Structures are given as C-alpha cells and as structure tokens.
From TrEMBL:
It comes from the Bacteria. Keywords: Hydrolase. It comes from Streptomyces halobius. This is Glycosyl hydrolase. Gene3D superfamilies: Glycosidases (3.20.20.80). The keyword Hydrolase applies. GO terms for molecular function: hydrolase activity. InterPro entries: GH.
Length: 414
C-alpha cells in the first residue's frame, strides 16, 4: 500500500519553476519524507516547460530531473503530471494555444504533435530513474473540454478517447513499461454528456485514478461527519469498478483533501483518518496521494479560500494534525499486506449504456445510486457496483465475487 502527497512547493507554489531553488525543494522533500510517505506527484507548468510549440526548454527538463533525483535520495518515488493544465482554480495553457493562436487542445493536429513530443520528452528524461513511477497526462485536463469552464474546447467522446490513447502512447514511447495514466475530476463520473467518460477512465491507462473532493455537494448535503462525506473516496473507488473490464484493475486515490469550511479545521485530522481508513477497505487499491503536501502561502493572492490550508504541513513545513494522522496510517501499514474482503453485494448502476453513460448523473451526490450506496454503507453492507447491462451476467459477477445484486430502489426499501 502506497502513501504519498501531491507536492506543493513552499517557495512560490508551482511558480517555483520560474526561480527554481533546489535547496528549498530538498527542505520540502525532507519534511514530506519525515511523515513516512513513499512517493510524491510532481507538477511541471506546461507554458514554462514548452513556451513555444517547438521549444521544450532543456533547463526546465533538467530541473525536473533534479527534483526527481532529490526525491529519490529521500526514499520518495516520483510520478509526474505533464500538461498543467489546471491547478487550484488557475489555468496554465501556453500562448500557442490561446487568443490569436487559439486552437482546440484536444483535436488540432499541430497542438497534438506538440503535446506528444512534450510528454515523450518528460518521460524519456526520467526513464532511466528506477524511482520514476510514470506519467499522468495532466491534472484534470478534462475541465477544458466542457462546462462549467468559461471557455471550453468542445469535443465528442470519441475525440476524447482518441486524445487519451495518443497521449498515453507518447508517454509509453518515452518511458516504456512505467505506470502511465490519465486523471480527471469527478464530472467524468457525475455529469451527463461530459466527453470524458467512466469507461475511458476505467479502461485506458495502467491504472484508474480518482480525485475525491467533498465540496462537490457531498459535504453540503450530508455534513462534515456524514457517512457519505467520510466514505466519498471509497464510493468513487468502488464506482470505477462497474466500468472496468479487468475485475482486479488497480485504482489510485490520486487526490483527496480536507477542504475548509466544508471540513472544519478542527475536524481535518479525523476526516483524514476516516477517509483513508474507509478507502483501505477497497480491494485493488494502489495507494493514496493526499492533496497536498504544504499549505499555500498567504502572500499569494486570488486563490479560493479553501486552497490555502489543504496541506499536511504548513507553509513553514510544520506538521499539521492531518499530517500526523496520515503519518500514523503510513507507519501502521508499512510492510503490511493489503487484502480486504471481497465486496459481495453490488448496487446496480443504470447510466444508459456502458460506453457514453448518458445518464451518469444518477451516480452524483443526491442521485439515486449515490444515496442508495450511502444507505447500504450505513448498514455495514460494504457495497460495490455493477452496470445494469452486466447485472445478470453470471460470469462477470463470479469474476468479481459478487453474490447479491440490488437496485437503488430495493436498497431504499431495505
């Protein structure tokens, strides 16, 4: 079982690439390693690394490798997100995709070629490092394809799939055999008509990634200590399995945090412990990567208020209560086999078809699937999910150890 953190530099946040200070990075990494974590997720800023479509800055790539090597010296494995993309409410897109050069970042042939070469270059630069885990295409880049983004690059589901397959192949060419994946925010699972689909998330790439944020309506509806709130990450992990072809496909809880005021500061440690403990009850969980390592400095302006205090450590690198909670869990699980019991009861998900899932909002907070799962969880049932079209497929159910199937309506009646 892996425990890690999304690395948010204390010096300049992700703008630290502009004034890269390896000593400051090393101090940050010392504080992360001090929690007993084993990996970090790292975020280059795309416009800084590839400011022109045919210019990938060698110095920037070298600094990324220096950061990765510094992490390895402290026993931390590294996974790298390529296309940033979107971070903490800010968009980072290169000028050659915007305004006078406006081109669809998912379909324009020149943009695609530039993205391919960029991802391949980053992967290749780290390919000989044994502590390099692999590439994630970008952080929640699906938000650029649809509302509520104020200026989306609209695409179809087929175009999203083609983009994902092409970019994953570029990462594989750069660093063959590593864990390359893609990661979207939860509209993939919850928003009808969104072009990035649950099937893509659960079938493309080496593992399935989920980002669990309870400010999506869960905490507002169920409160900071509600079952749905403290089990939301677990819910998303299990929901992915309805669409997976491999019954034992690994799922990575790649982002999860305790956002105030939805989770009050004095409840953050409890929420951290509860969320991770519940997630660990999911079979085939690869690991947990908390958002984020360090708080954002208050000297930086215009972040949403909740973004400033999400760190396991303060901006001064002091350990916060949530950091102590995850450190205790990491220590408890170090070297311990992760083998939770099979989840034998499956809740039926009728999203209108497995490929496009046109009615996937049934899974969103407040939807019948979400609320039925919450009710069953309150009864200690430990439910998983099965698509409606597979609910009578004995071979599929047997492969997953499912012995009982119920609909949301039946769950409510129970």
């Amino acid at each position: 079982m892996r425990f890690g953190a999304n690395y948010t530099p204390t010096q300049g946040w992700f703008h630290h690439w502009l004034d890269f200070d390896l000593d400051a990075v090393r101090a940050d990494l010392d504080s992360i390693a001090g929690l007993g974590l084993d990996h970090i997720r790292v975020f280059p800023l795309w416009p800084l690394f590839q400011p022109n479509r045919t210019l990938i800055r060698p110095r920037a790539v070298e600094q990324l490798v220096q950061l990765a090597d510094a992490a390895a010296e402290r026993g931390l494995d590294v996974t790298v997100d390529g296309l940033q993309g979107h971070l903490s409410s800010f968009d980072f897109l290169p000028a050659w995709t915007q305004t006078w050069h406006r081109r669809n970042i998912f379909t324009d042939p020149d943009v695609l070629a530039g993205q391919e070469e960029y991802l391949r270059t980053l992967a290749a630069a780290l390919a000989d490092r044994p502590h390099f885990l692999g590439m994630t295409l970008g952080n929640e880049i699906n938000q650029f394809s649809d509302g509520p983004h104020p200026d989306p690059d609209r695409i179809t589901g087929a175009q999203a799939a083609a983009w994902l397959e092409r970019m994953l192949a570029a990462c594989e060419r750069g660093a063959p055999g590593r864990t390359h994946l893609h990661a979207e925010y939860d509209v993939t699972w919850y928003r009808d008509g969104h072009p990035f689909t649950p099937a893509q998330a659960a079938r493309l790439g080496a593992v399935t990634a989920v980002h669990s944020w309870v400010f999506n309506g869960t905490a507002q509806r169920h409160g900071p200590t509600g079952i749905a709130t403290e089990h939301h990450a677990e819910y998303l992990i299990e929901l992915t399995k309805a669409w997976a072809v491999d019954p034992h496909r690994s799922v990575w809880l790649q982002e999860v945090g305790a956002p105030a005021p939805h989770i009050p500061a004095d409840r953050a440690a409890h929420f951290t412990e509860a969320t991770i403990t519940n997630a660990l009850d999911c079979p085939d969980l690869w690991g947990v990567t908390w958002w984020c390592s360090h708080d954002v400095a208050r000297s930086l302006a215009d972040f949403p208020e909740l973004e400033y205090g999400l760190g396991l450590l303060g901006n001064d690198r002091t350990v916060k209560p949530a950091g102590r909670a995850i450190a205790a869990l990491a220590k408890e699980w170090r070297g311990r086999e992760h083998r939770p019991a099979v989840r034998s009861t499956a809740l039926v998900v009728d999203a209108g078809g497995s490929e496009d899932a046109p009615r996937r909002s049934v899974c969103a907070p407040g939807g019948p699937v979400f609320e039925a799962w919450t009710e069953l969880t309150a009864q200690d049932v430990r439910p998983t999910f099965v698509l409606a079209e597979l609910a009578s497929d004995d071979a599929h159910l047997t492969s997953r150890g499912i012995t009982e199937v119920c609909t949301p309506e039946e769950a409510h009646q129970a």
